[in-house]
Specification:
alpha+beta, about 15% strand
Length: about 110
């Protein structure tokens, strides 16, 4: 039986292999690194786009909130990413929590 440290290593390797940090990367939105924006939708208004998850190749249409719900398995009408294991979820949540904390701290 594989140890949990092996599972954790596999999950982190998977994230490393799909993470893309674009030149316009904004640390406030870390989960954009795990999806590919294919096209803007809604006539260019707002942040809506057609998005493909780099982990499971599923299409998601919407904004960062829908990406977050998909990758962090939050539900709310968004199918969760089947490739996100517990170890991957912990890592993604940590990245999002750091971004949320830095944004909240900057507003003080």
């Amino acid at each position: 039986m594989a140890s949990s440290s092996t599972g954790n290593s596999d999950g982190l390797q998977m994230l490393d292999s799909v993470r893309v940090i674009p030149p316009t990367d904004d640390p406030k939105w870390p989960l954009w690194r795990y999806v590919q924006k294919v096209a803007k939708t809604g006539g260019g208004k707002g942040g809506n786009a057609k998005i493909i998850c780099r982990l499971c190749n599923r299409d998601v249409t919407g904004s960062y909130t829908r990406v977050k719900h998909h990758l962090l398995k939050m539900g709310n009408g968004v199918k969760p990413c089947p490739k996100v294991t517990i170890d991957v979820l912990v890592q993604l949540k940590s990245e999002q929590d750091k971004a949320d904390a830095s944004t909240k701290f900057a507003k003080l």
